[in-house]
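User: I'm curious whether this sequence folds into something compact or stays loose and floppy. Could you predict its structure so I can see for myself?
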Amino acid sequence: MVRGNILVVDDEPDICRLVQEILEDEQYRVFTAEDAGSARVAYSRLHPDLVLLDIWMPDVDGITLLKEWSGNKQNTAPVVMMSGHGNVETAVEATRLGAYDFIEKPLSMGKLLLTVEHALQASRQGKTKDVPRISPASSLTGNSAEIVSLRQQLERVAQSESKVLITGENGCGKGVAARYIHANSNRSSGPFVEISLGAVPPENLLKLLFGSEQADVLQTGSIEQANGGTLFLNEVGDLDSDTQLKLYHALEEKNYLRVGGSSHVSADVRLITSTTYDLKNEIKAGRFNEKLYYLLNVVSISLPPLRNRREDIPDLVKRFVDTFTAAEQLPYRAFPISTLNRLRNHDWPGNTRELKNLVQRLLILNRGSEVELEEVENVLQSPVAVKSYPARTENSLFEMSLRDARDAFEKSYLEHHLRETAGNISELARIVGMERTHLYRKIKQLRINPKELKGSEKK
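Assistant: Here's the prediction. I'll summarize afterward.
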């Protein structure tokens, strides 16, 4: 039985395909469109029950389509906005214009499915969702010496207008720190615009940052959108060399041209950047612009990994449980002392993001009012050991840069498991413990072709 007709509008084919597969597995009928033109045709012909709509597209942005469809008396299908470079103001604007909800990329499949289910249910009952209260900044949870010192440092930095470079491991809260600076600054009433650079295809980056002028269509870029506020560039080390150079000149000259434009544009923006890379090593390797580095690195803030502040884990678990039960209507489950102690003894290579995902998974499983120790053990112990490890990688890793060595290992690791699973991406995601959205991006980034490995599994 078909549970509903859903239109997915996104200019990235991989995202369309992934979301379609997930929703079709849940018995929804799914149609996709990769630009505004085909989206308009599909919307008018198919009369979908729900639309998942990307904000940033190359021809017409999603907000424009939302405005068109919100005034359509023939079809009142709820619209859920999606964006990998969204911000608080965009989310509020989208909901003000009639969007049912706003979800960020990379997509959490658990949240996606819950949002779809709630949106369709509300639509059938003739209800609309209240505009969500979106906090302008998340507090840095915990009372360890490390987190108290970090909060004090961020509050001092917030009082200046200096550019800030935030460093730290993946998942340790660089975005949270950037929002904290913005919320405690004189710009707190202005916009906070965030771009996850690693999630944006290189060919879209210039338009995303600087905007574009094509024929009679003008699109403002993220720099303009952040005017009077803060622009946060997450993972600045992922910028290609051409974009690095253009960003340097824009910051140095305090103006720039939109893509295809002829008039210079300027904006009053405070810039915060983050990276997991050692940018000095990236400069030596010729992958990062030295002038841009010194322009960005006026104030440097290093975030502690979760394993260095284990005493904060009970507070973090409580915060995540409260968030998921309130925002996603997941069932409340208590974490007894034995499970909290086990969590405190884990090394958390994925830091707070890994802990947050674990809490969400345990709530979704909903195996009783309390989270048992055995459940935690099962989630933590994923079968990720590599059975065979290429000699080339083992012998030559130490001669590479850290970034190249990591890429070489990840490529060998994923190719190994793709052979073992006969190219099955869903099974691969389960084995390696990654959401399929992240996994598709990683496979694309490492230039892995699953089809080539599909027939080469071990007999």
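Summary: The chain has four domains: 5-124, 145-302, 307-380, 391-454. The longest strand covers residues 270-275.
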